[in-house]
Amino acid sequence: xxxxxxxxxxxxxxxxxxxxxxxxxxxxxxxxxxxxxxxxxxxxxxxxxxxxxxxxxxxxxxxxxxxxxxxxxxxxxxxxxxxxxxxxxxxxxxxxxxxxxxxxxxxxxxxxxxxxxxxxxxxxxxxxxxxxxxxxxxxxxxxxxxxxxx
Length: 150
Description:
This protein is mainly beta. The protein has a single domain (4-148), classed as Immunoglobulin-like. Helix content is 9%, strand content 39%. The strands form two sheets. A four-stranded mixed sheet has the order 4-1-7-8, with no helix packed on it. A hairpin with a 5-residue loop joins β7 (129-136) and β8. It is elongated.
């Protein structure tokens, strides 16, 4: 169970806006066949995107705690802590409520430094939906990956 102090620490660092430290890339390895991953069924304003999915995956042999803070256009929309057993994953968001022009994700793995990623960076301009994967690698390192839903 997370403590109030842990949640406040993530929120305070998130609010400081200290830049992007996360490893960003395309999510080419993910299964993108699902129609629910597409923003085509909803109206998305020009210059905005939907967050179609946020998933956390633990590929390490040990259990880990992951603290997440998600900002949409500068407003904190999600602040959660998840304990993941070795070899498990969890879908945190399967569709964020409102589109935004910018999504920023701050992640802390156990007691390590907080890493950040701008989830709309590197995604093609005509995309109306993005998704993200927070992966605890087999060596225990942290990776944050993003890509278009379709």
